[in-house]
Amino acid sequence: LVHGEINRALAPVFNERLARIGAEIWDHLWPWSRSGFQRQRALQAAGVALALAATLVWVLAAMGHGDELVVVDRNFPAQSVAMETQSGKLITLGGMDAPTSIGGILELMPLDSFVDAPLAWMDPVDQPGAILSVHADVLAACNKAEGREVQHRVIERHQFYAAAKKCFAVVQNSENRPYGCFILKKGVVFD
Fold it and tell me: What predicted TM-score, i.e. pTM, was given to this entire model?
């Protein structure tokens, strides 16, 4: 009688484990099945996201006070510029816009408070000096992250490319608004 009660209590656990094993076998034997493909893609995406996050964290940790990080939109020649940066690293944050990616970066890296303008952006060729919506959104994200008014400077387009090559690394996001290219100067990390 006791043995029967134990079997009834363990049956749901056993059935759940058996179902998982069966699903794994199915996915390995028939990886092109809809559920197997979705699980595999989810694991691959998680692995890629973790690898990108690890690379970004490494770059931010390797940067010293005063080093600069260039964060660019989808139209920027990121790979060719990254090859000429100090680290040679290109980190791609697909699916993120400029304010989101910069806001996330600033959770891990403070802006330099010892310089007048720790934020710079590419000046629009057709509207020199204009603050476009992407600039205003990133400036707001910087102000929020820093808890202060962050000063900025603008850099002419061709000079921006030259300045980007002197940065530590390139982070490219999926920002689709024009002139969504920024340079962040790293501050001192106190904690």
Answer: 0.75
